[in-house]
Structures are given as C-alpha cells and as structure tokens.
Amino acid sequence: MDNPSRSERTRNATIRAALAIIARDGPGRLTLDAIARESGISKGGLMHQFPTKRAVLKALLEHQIEHFDAFSRKYRAEQGAAHAEPHLAVQIATMREAIAGPDPVASAILAAMTEDPGLLAVTRDIDARSVAAIKAEAADPELAVLRWVAARGLVLAALLGTCPFSEAERARLFDRLLDDQQWSAPSRTGARAGRASKQKAKRA
Predict the structure, then answer these.
(1) What per-residue confidence (pLDDT) applies to 145?
(2) 133-163: pLDDT as tens digits
(3) DSSP string, the chain
(4) Which of residues 109 and 52 earns the better pLDDT score?
(5) Is the confidence at residue 74, as pLDDT, over 80?
(6) From CA 171, how far away is CA 180, in angstroms rounded?
(7) Are the beta carbons of 32 and 46 closer than 8 angstroms?
(8) Domain boundaries, the chain
C-alpha cells in the first residue's frame, strides 16, 4: 500500500474511532491512547499523522464540514425547489441531520467546544455566510433568522443532553420549522392596519 493510501486509511480509522469514543464515553475521554486502542492503530502510527489531540479534533471538524456539505448539496438538489426560502430550508434540514442516528457526526462540534473553542472559527465563518444568504432571500429576514436559531438550539440541546423533548416531539418541531406556510410574514400594510384597529378599539 502506498503512503497516500495508508495515510487516508489511518485518517478514516482515526475519525471513526474518535466519533465512537465521543458518542460512547464523552469528549473528555478522547485521548490519543484511547483512539489507538479503539482503532487498532499503533500509537506511533497514529502520532505520525496526528501528533496532538488538537490535530484529531481539527480532522473531526473537517470531516463534519465535508459530511454536511454533501448532505446540503443533495437536499438542495432534491428538495430546494419546494421551498420559498431554499437556503433556510437547507440549513434547517442539515441541522436536523446533525443529530440523526445513534452516532451523530455533530459530536465533533461538542468535542471541539469542550477542548479548544478556537477550532470553531471555521464553522463560525460558514455560519456567517449561511445567515447572510438566508437574510438575502427572505421576505422577513428576522423571522428567517429566528427559525435558523431555533433549529440550532434544538441541535445544541440534543448534543448537550439537555433537550426536554422526545425524539418525536423534536421531529415535529423540525417539521414545523421547515414548513414555509406556517411562517408567512404579515405584510407591513396589514400590520399597520391591525395596530390602527387596536388603537381605535381602545379609544372607543
């Protein structure tokens, strides 16, 4: 096996092992020794490619970004045309995917937050671009951002183990966040008319 192939195999085995450790034992138990045991790679071989735990976390975040980018492209191609605000729909669906299954790839976020918040600079930049695109296409940018923030809150609560909702309840909430018809922004004219009617009623 040539060196590039060996390096790729080591990287993939390391990521799988790291995710398994995080999901089973929590990010605090993620060490190079634990990864070596879980993956079956010698510690020397592991450290040749990942000399520090920070290097492993960086690889996890890169893997996460690649995974969700592929999911986002697929969702947009298959479902984007059905939504009035496709950038927002893609973001909400991708966040829903982040906590799907027994071994969520988004565990990498939690590990990075715990160990080295500086690693999240790349994801903050991606989020900033996503929010800008969401605002640009929305009839009501603030409402669109609130939907995005609500989805993000569900994800973080699930990852931190503090979510008060069952999986079925969480699924219904994501369904509603994705349903454009439930979030139609009232027109400014309608809003002004409504306020005028209330004021008139008070005077009467």
Answers:
(1) 97
(2) 999 999 999 999 999 999 999 988 887 788 8
(3) --HHHHHHHHHHHHHHHHHHHHHHH-GGG--HHHHHHHHT--HHHHHHH--SHHHHHHHHHHHHHHHHHHHHHHHHHHHGGG-SSHHHHHHHHHHHHHT-SSS-TTHHHHHHHHH-GGGGHHHHHHHHHHHHHHHHH-SSHHHHHHHHHHHHHHHHHHHHT---S-HHHHHHHHHHHH-GGGGPPPPHHHHHHHHHHHHHHHH-
(4) 52
(5) yes
(6) 16
(7) yes
(8) 80-188
Nearest residue to 76 (alpha-carbon basis) of 149, 123, 130: 130
- Residue appearing with tokens 């590990």: 111
Question: What is the distance in angstroms between the CA of the first residue and the CA of the last residue of the chain?
Answer: 86
Q: How many CB atoms lie within 10 A of CB 92?
A: 24
